[in-house]
Amino acid sequence: MFKIFKRKEEKRSYVASIVGSYFDDLTNGEAMNIPSVYSAVNMISNAVASAKPVNNPLGTEPQINMSFYTWSNTIVKNILLHGNAFAKIGSHRQYQLLDPKKVTMMYDKDYMNIVYYQHGAERIYPEDMLHFKNLSKDNLGQVGYSALNNFSNTFSRIQATSEYEGNYLLNASRPSLWVSSPKNLAKEKIKELKAAFKAAYQGTKNSGAVPILGDGMELHELKAANTLVDADLVALKQASLKEIAQIFNMPVSILDSSLATYSNSVESNLQFLRMTIQPLLNNIREEINLKLSANMSFDTSTFIEGSFEQKINTLTSAVSGGILTPDEARARLNYKAIGNNKLFAPAGTPTTTAQGA
Predict the structure, then answer these.
(1) Which residue has the higher pLDDT, 251 or 156?
(2) Which of 76, 93, 244, 356 is the most exposed place for a label (fewest CB within 10 A)?
(3) Taking residues 251-265, what's their average pLDDT?
(4) How confident is the model at residue 49 (pLDDT cuts 50, 70, 90)?
(5) CA 244 – CA 236 distance, rounded (Å)
(6) d(CA 138, CA 83)
(7) How far apart are CA 60 and CA 6, in angstroms?
């Protein structure tokens, strides 16, 4: 068939310049080698991908051999790290993910928008591209800005701290006891003494054993000379977690479980949903609805569910209050319907028959 409505090349002239984010010192792979960064990106992308889509125009397989979960997970990861995520709108409901590092955005200053995207030798126009953007710094909302680029010094410092900590723990010599002798001992004698002392007193099975020394030798306990270094490492680690949480706009208690308590865990989850997850879901939803003329939304009710007992009490109240039907409440628990899809009249309100009387 002839493509009657094939897009024509624009006849107007424009001067397009390259815009985008580039990574000089720290790449995506290196950033993900930092445990706190990996944890933050993993938590956020998994949470967003776990939200249940409603009226999803992309279907369950937006790209060949890729589920919507994996597809949306990758979109979020690229938004967080690169500032931009791209998916080419193809035929037959296929939406191919593109590597953001291989996409060039061509921006026209006169028209103040992106006129096309360059991916290799292919030119892709805005209406044929799903472009999900992080916070923009161009004041026009055209290009997302990369956290890696914006906080490159922070990421590099955190990476250096992590490497230093690993080298320190692996290579530092930290003896806890030492023995003094009034006599000069030969090297062989010292080796024999060390081997005997190690065999007799090292390890958990020898914990509490009483050392016996002769020839005027004395046993001394070595004070923790590295205490300040250890304290500094702990402080740096805690500061790094706070910085990573701030960069990715998430509560620090989500990253550091030691800060979470039973009383504040629910509030932290709500804050995580409102501050971190909901804006990303809105970002994805609005772009898809705009480019595909859809009415997609996300169900986030599972994010705020408490214990099973709390969930049962909430659903029971919703059914007795006439908000949910019994079958709708059972569906929330993944239970089979029982054929009762009628709303109950809330206690104290007139029934339908009484209202018509």
Answers:
(1) 251
(2) 356
(3) 71
(4) very high
(5) 12
(6) 13
(7) 28
Closest listed residue to residue 66, CA positions, set 39, 89, 36, 96: 96
**How buried is 65 (Cβ within 10 angstroms: 0-12 exposed, 13-18 middle, 19+ buried)?**
exposed
CA distances to 10, 51, 206 from 197, in Å: 85, 60, 11
Number of helices and strands (H, E) in the chain? 13, 11
The two three-digit tokens of residue 219, written as one number = 């046993």
**Residues in the chain, overall count:** 357
Q: At residue 178, does pLDDT exceed 50?
A: yes
Cβ contact 152:24 at 8 Å: yes
CA distance 244 to 154: 9
Closest by CA to 268, choosing from 299, 303, 242, 241, is 303
Place of tokens 């099973």: 308
CA distance 317 to 330: 13
B/e letters for 329-353, b = 16+ CB within 10 Å, e = fewer, are bbeeeeeeeeeeeeebbeeeeeeee
Q: What is the mean pLDDT of residues 245-261?
A: 80
- pLDDT score of 224: 53
Identify the DSSP state of 24: S
SS3 25: coil
Between the CA of residue 232 and those of 53, 238, 253, what are the distances in Å?
45, 10, 21
Mark out the alpha helices in 25-150 (DSSP H runs).
28-31, 35-50, 68-82, 147-150
Give the percent of the chain with pLDDT over 70: 75
DSSP letters along 200-225, please?
HH-SGGGTT------TT-EEEEPP-T
Q: Considering only residues 307 and 2, tell me which one the structure prediction assigns the higher pLDDT.
A: 307
